[in-house]
Design a protein that fits this description.
eight-stranded parallel barrel; 247 residues; TIM Barrel; 15% strand
């Protein structure tokens, strides 16, 4: 179930069930579910997606990230496109409300053919073009291509490391989008700066992980778990709600 776009929305990135429950508790509009956020996020496993959907119980939208490997977004052969399409279909079958995905050509432009196959596999699900757009040589051209393909949302840092650094570019994309798609400001967005990001970008949504301190690090290079910080998450959602009341 997709929520209305008559006000800014709060999207929280979740990579564990504790964070999913917290997103529900603080009143987020949507979560993006992924695995391995420390490498930019990967496709979540079927078990995690099912558990997250059960935990949410329809109270907010669940978007599954579809990214089968680390590294860039240029597909390395037909097998990777097949994997993208299969993961999109699996997310739809599981009951996700949408997917976040992106594919680029060798020259860095949006891979129109691959994205068309993804949109077809989504079969009515909301599709977010994720931060692959930040690696394109012309984000405005990529946005127009994405609109033509039928994506619902574009998640971007404005080609910068953080949304605040890329605020001017994000705002330009918002103006080009003209409400045809939702522009989501992402990267470095937390409770403490959410209001400023919204003010400077006029984005239709904010996206943040609001990651807290490490709570589980097994060592051996296996990575550490950093669940969502309750104060930061609540602050981000509160800033979005306040901005909605003012618009």
């Amino acid at each position: 179930m997709e929520r209305p776009l008559d006000r800014p929305q709060a999207e929280l990135l979740c990579a564990d069930l504790e964070s999913v429950h917290l997103a529900v508790e603080v009143g987020a509009d949507r979560i993006e579910l992924c695995a391995a956020p420390e490498v930019g996020g990967l496709t979540p496993g079927a078990g995690l997606l099912d558990a997250a959907l059960d935990a949410v119980g329809g109270r907010l939208d669940v978007v599954a990230l579809v990214r089968p490997r680390v590294g860039g977004f240029r597909l390395r052969g037909p097998g990777e496109l097949a994997a993208l399409v299969a993961d999109v279909r699996a997310a739809r079958a599981a009951g996700a409300s949408g997917v976040a995905v992106g594919a680029l050509r060798r020259d860095g432009t949006l891979d129109v053919e691959a994205m068309a196959e993804v949109l077809s596999a989504a079969d009515g699900m909301a599709v977010t073009l994720h931060r692959a757009i930040d690696l394109t040589p012309d984000p405005v051209a990529a946005l127009e291509t994405a609109v033509g393909l039928g994506v619902s949302r574009v998640l971007t840092s404005g080609t910068a490391v953080t949304a605040l650094e890329g605020a001017a570019t994000i705002r330009a994309l918002v103006e080009v989008a003209r409400a045809r798609v939702q522009i989501i400001a992402a990267a470095g967005v937390r409770g403490e700066n959410a209001a400023e990001v919204l003010r400077r970008t006029a984005a239709g949504a904010l996206h943040g992980s609001c990651a807290g301190a490490v709570v589980d690090d097994p060592g051996l290079g296996m990575g550490a778990l950093r669940p969502m910080d309750p104060t930061e998450a609540a602050g981000l959602v509160a800033a979005v709600r306040a901005a909605g009341a003012e618009r």
